[in-house]
Amino acid sequence: MKIDQFPADIRPYLLPEPRGEMIYRCIDCKKEFDIDRLLYTCPDCGSVLLLYSKNMEYTSHISGKKWRKIFDYRRMLNHRALKGIFRYYEFIAPVIPLDQIIYLGEGHTPLVEANARLKEKIGLNFYFKNDGLNPSASFKDRGMACALSYINHLAKKENIGDLLAICASTGDTSASAALYASYLENFLKSAVLLPEGKVTPQQLSQPLGSGARVLEMPGGFDDCMKVVESLAENYHVALLNSKNSWRILGQESFSFEIAQDFDYEVGDKVILVPIGNAGNITALMSGFLKFFRAGLINQLPKIVGVQSEHADPVYKYYLEENPEKRGFVPVTVRSSVAQAAMIGNPVSMPRVIELVKEYNRAAENNKIFVVQVSEQEIMDAMIIANRNGHIACTQGGESFAGLQKALDAGYIRPDEVGVLDSTAHILKFAVFQDMYFNDSFDPEFNIKPKSELKNTPIQLRPENLTKYPAAGNPLSGEDLQNFLREMAAEIAKILGLKKKWH
Length: 502
Ligand SMILES: *Cc1c(COP(=O)(O)O)cnc(C)c1O
Ligand SMILES: [Zn+2]
Known about the structure:
The chain has three domains: about 110-135 and about 250-445, 3-Layer(aba) Sandwich (Rossmann fold); about 140-245, Rossmann fold; about 460-500, no CATH class. Helix content is about 40%, strand content about 15%. The chain has helices at about 10-15, 55-60, 65-75, 90, 115-120, 140-155, 170-185, 200-210, 220-235, 245-250, 255-260, 280-295, 315-320, 350-365, 375-385, 395-410, 430-435, 475-495, and strands at about 20-25, 30-35, 50-55, 110-115, 125-130, 165-170, 190-195, 215, 240, 270-275, 300-310, 370-375, 415-420.
């Protein structure tokens, strides 16, 4: 819709201008730092940072009701920069001029309601939010769109002509970083550091296709992370891991979209999300808190973090009921089908610890839970979801398995509504589906396929058929007739088809 056709009271708010002032604030010592440089950790105490809007009066003189109206109308506006996560511009990064925003089609992923069969099986109503439908096929694009838009803005402002962006990755961060960096190739080059053999072939091909320098090293993700941190400390590089708090801001859009898609009624919702480096759950909490404080939503939803038994440091931390006695201990991970979440020492843990307290305080209730699921449960859940019309990856399966766990544990009631984060597209993780169907998992996964969920192709070789068509060598005449008849008969036999009576 054209701008002059919107209601007069909304028109002035539709195209926002940079007016906010943002700062980095240390999670630990609370010191604040200017955003004129790229900071990843507190220069004073070394802890992680989060970004805050400073002059909140810019947003707080607008009522929650008015914000809802602004965002609902902005949905109808055709403006490239506001098509993706920046529909919520004022709540994400209101310092970036619209013409410097990078938009590659991220955000506003579909919320797909589970069919009657699945709802009945689980015993409550729920949805999948398909973040695998982002441009690089995972939710990482939300954060990357924000980080790269800011870097684009900063580079223009500071006249930076040449910058290298780097990240460590379990596969999806690198795919996303490389994609967005390739779009900005005039001044930005990207390099990604991967744990050798621990990303899927699809995830490896993505940054290669985007033209990034791809570096593989022995060890796991946690080791790669330490190496890029050391690089960011000692060299001129832009770090694109979720330690970079611009990424967290972009990922908050996931919660804004859920709020808007449910007409801002989220008090009865439960969001389930896999936890790896814990950037995503950080953004979920922070996003909902922002909408709550600005009055767009009147209640906070529950959030359930899900971890595999093979990589469960956050689950273990919250096992201790007494907050005074809790202490974070990194774990050594074992192989997991939820490979994108196979992290023993999550970078965002200090953010999680702070935000969980803030969230529960604001909700005046315990609204954040962490559950643990087995590798078997993750795989079974993923396969079942996808046999019912979904496109869940292994981490989406983890969310689904977590729904059942949270229900069994009494964290969720059957009258609440689940929203499962399917963080990536199944096609990125098809190797795990293949292992399930072929019963070829390494013993360390401890996964046995359920026979009723297995599916493998059937090779057609009718007994009486000797001649087959080949490349450049088609069949004809009697041979062709024979081939068609025998193949059709064989297929009819396998599928149990009934013959037509002419
Ligand atoms: C990165 C990733 C995760 C883990 O998210 P964190 O923010 O690291 O907790 C889960 N699923 C997929 C598909 C991912 O790419
Ligand atoms: Zn500090």
